[in-house]
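Protocol step 4 of 5: obtain the predicted structure for the target chain.
Materials: sequence only (see below). No template structures provided, no constraints applied. The aim of this step is simply to have a reference model before the mutagenesis design in step 5. Sequence pasted as it appears in the construct record:
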Amino acid sequence: MYIKIIAIALLAFMVYNLFRALFIMNKNDPEKPSMTKFIGRRLMASVVLVILLLLGILTGIITPNPRPF
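Step 4 output (structure tokens):
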């Protein structure tokens, strides 16, 4: 259950950073942090999420759906 909560939190964090980068890109203010800062955070969150899911599957905490055939 904890892995699902962490995964949902990471997905929400990714969406938040995506919209922050969008607003910064549209404003184009040189005094604000650059858009790459938020895109980089989004990338790191996705890497952490993939590693978390792989570790969960490898340790047996998460069971993937069976093959359809």
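Step 4 remarks: The mean pLDDT is 88. The two ends are 28 Å apart (CA to CA).
Proceed to step 5.
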